[in-house]
Each structure stands twice: as structure tokens, then as C-alpha cells.
Amino acid sequence: MAKYKKLKIVCDACCHVPSAHIAGRAGKGKAAGGILFIDDNGNTNSEFGVYFGELTVPQAEYSALIKALDTASSICRGEIEVWLDSEFVVRQLNGEYGIKSENMKPLYHEVKKLEDRFQNVKYFHHGNNTALAKRADQLAEREYRKNQN
């Protein structure tokens, strides 16, 4: 049985791509995500990190969101607010941008499929300097560091 009628999700991903500072460099790096669930009263219900392995930055952002929505469906089937610091991903999910990359389409479709578990899902962009964004980033970075040898 769903515990919450409304849930706020804040998620972020970190992706450490070697030589990312080189212009035109696109590639994969070790990636992890940080996820927070916040109830109607503004209390953090849970927070956790998840390690993904080798992904591109957009794949990491989508993977964190997929994990968040999948996990959230066990405690909420109602209204979901998702807050991301990736404006690009938010605009894709809100239908403002299309998905051009073939390797991103399955991730996008997985998110849309997971949305069916809830009454309503809305996506919002926030800067990475908000307290919740910083906490999600800390969780992602912590998970990343735990998995480096």
C-alpha cells in the first residue's frame, strides 16, 4: 500500500569522464546517482546513492531518475514532483526538446513507462546550488567514491 499521496524527488548524477576538459570530448565515465525523497511536510523520507558504472553524463542523469521513480513507486502512487539540475533532461521530459540520440531513447521511454505507476509526474529544473541539489550531489559523489579502487 502506498504510504504517501505526494512525494518530491530530488536526484542528481555524477559522471567522471577522463579528459572531459578537452573541447569536443564526449565519452563515458564512472557514474553514480544521489536520490532524496521528501514528503508533504518537507521531511526527507529517505536518501541514498546508487552506482552505475560506465555511462555518459546524460545516461547517468536518466539512470538516476529511473532508479528514483522505480523506488518511489513502492511508497507513493499519487503525485510526484521531480527536481533535477539538468535543464536539458527536464526539457526533454516536458516535451520541449526531442530525443535525437538513439542510445538515449530507451532511457527516455523507460522513464515514460515508469510515470504510469503514478497519478501525475511533473519535472522541474533547479540550480545545483540549492541545499537539496547539493545533498543529492553529495550522495552521488559518496557512492562514486565507495566504488573506486
List keywords for this structure.
single chain; 149 residues; alpha/beta; Nucleotidyltransferase, domain 5; 5 strands; globular
Quickly describe the structure.
This protein has 149 residues and is of the alpha/beta class.
What does this structure look like?
The protein has helices spanning 57-72, 87-93, 105-115, 131-146; strands spanning 4-16, 29-38, 44-55, 76-84, 120-125. With 149 residues, the protein is an alpha/beta fold. The protein has a single domain (4-146), classed as Nucleotidyltransferase, domain 5. It has a five-stranded mixed beta sheet with strand order 3-2-1-4-5. The model has no long low-confidence stretch (mean pLDDT 92).
Query: How would you name the CATH homologous superfamily?
Result: Ribonuclease H-like superfamily/Ribonuclease H
Mean pLDDT, nearest integer?
92
Strand order within the widest beta sheet: 3-2-1-4-5
Helix content, binned percent: 25-40%
Percent of sequence in beta strands: 25-35%
Regarding CATH, which class?
A: Alpha Beta
| Structural class estimated from helices and strands | alpha/beta
Instruction: Give the total of beta strands.
Output: 5
Low-confidence parts? none
Number of helices: 4
